[in-house]
Amino acid sequence: MEAIRWLALGISTSLATISVALMIVEKTITAEAWALLLLAPIPAGFAMTRHVNEPSSRTEVASDWADDADIVEDGGVGDPTEAGFDIPVL
User: Fold this and answer.
1) Helical H runs in the chain?
2) What is the tens place of the pLDDT at every residue in 40-68?
3) Which residue has the higher pLDDT, 20 or 85?
4) 44 to 3, 14, 20, 47: CA distances (angstroms)
5) Which of 9, 29, 12, 11 is nearest to 20 (CA)?
6) What span, in angstroms and rounded, lies between the C-alpha atoms of 59 and 38?
């Protein structure tokens, strides 16, 4: 698998190098040079992604939600100044 990653990074580097070389040789930025430069991140992205057969390093943390007994739902909105909001002046 490492060989595939290095190959993809090599392809990405060669695309970027060819794009810069085209810009230098033609002394202007052409659509072909931009196309090669825009294609360069695609193989690099494949090279940097994790593969399915690699062991996962993700750990899961289970936690219980605390019961919020102090929340009172009386249906009212309440005073915005008590909640810390400013009252707009029109």
Assistant:
1) 2-26, 31-39, 41-48
2) 888 888 888 866 565 556 667 767 666 66
3) 20
4) 13, 11, 17, 5
5) 29
6) 35
